[in-house]
Amino acid sequence: MESRRRPLQGPRRGLGHDPDYRFSLANERTFLAWVRTSLALVAGGLIATQLLPELAVAYGREAIGVGLVGLGTLVAVGAFRRWVRNEEAMRLQRPIPPSRLPAVLAVGAVAVSLGALALLLIDGMRG
Amino acid sequence: MSGDGDGRGAAVDLDAGLQRERTALAWDRTALALIIVGALVVRSVGDRAPLWQVPGYLAVAWGAVLLALDAGPGRRPRPGADPPLRTRRVRATGIVVVAVSCVALVLVAAA
User: Which of B21, B97, B103 has the highest number of chain A CBs within 10 A, making it the mutation to test binding with A?
Assistant: First the structure.
């Protein structure tokens, strides 16, 4: 039985065989793409909190900021874990395991967007 | 892309898909994003709590290190070379990004 992995634990040493370098590099580029997505979300949350005007709903813009940055944090953690799992799968010549990260990002982005839309509509009606 | 087929069994280092170059560019883009977001975090923290600026400065510094690591063709990673170093670079990047995200989360929640 596989022991529980620590959050930032890298691929297990000496596991399997060195994969084709092209696949390793592709995995690395995928990780970096997720990292940039995470950073964009974090930046968006910070900017929303600082540049949006006060909304009619109390702590409305903070909620948008928290949603975006929280999603960015989830993506950052998930990105590393995905990179490790993919590296290990390639070393063991197993299929790349499925990832929930795209679903998490999609659901989170929709939730934040709908929340922001609702806040703006309420702000418009009260304003 | 380089080739070295001298016919005496020397390793042929062909990268027809320009994988290493694309990976290096991906690191460069990530480094720039780290620098920008790190600066944004530092600016957002302001004078409120100087210690909270540390992850932001760390992101800026790590972004600069990543750019320096990829500077010059001699520093491009060889095919499959140094997996532990690559792992450390990926892990360090992950740690920095998570640290910056956590600070940003506190900032927006406490705003």
Answer: B97
CA atoms of B78 and B20, how far apart (whole Å): 8
Mean per-residue pLDDT, A53-75: 91
Tell me which residues of chain B, numbers 19 to 58, contact chain A at a CB-CB cutoff of 8 Å: 19-20, 22-23, 26-27, 29-30, 33-34, 36-37, 40-41, 44
B41 closest CA partner among B94, B110, B100, B93: B100
Identify the residue among B29, B40, B78, B90 best suited for mutation to test binding to A, counting A beta carbons within 10 A and taking the highest.
B90
The span from the CA of A88 to the CA of A103, in Å, is: 22
Q: What is the mean pLDDT of residues B99-110?
A: 90
Is A13 exposed, middle or buried (CB count within 10 Å of its CB: 0-12, 13-18, 19+)?
exposed
Judged by CB atoms closer than 8 Å, whether chains meet at B108 and A45 is answered as yes
| Predicted ipTM beyond 0.90 | no
What secondary structure letter does DSSP report for A100?
S
Answer for the pair A67, A111: CB distance below 8 angstroms, yes or no.
Answer: yes
Taking a C-beta distance cutoff of 8 angstroms, is the pair A89, A95 a contact?
yes
User: pLDDT per residue over B39-98, tens digit each?
Assistant: 999 998 888 788 888 999 999 999 999 998 876 554 555 544 566 778 889 999 999 999
Average pLDDT (A61-86) is: 94
pTM: 0.84
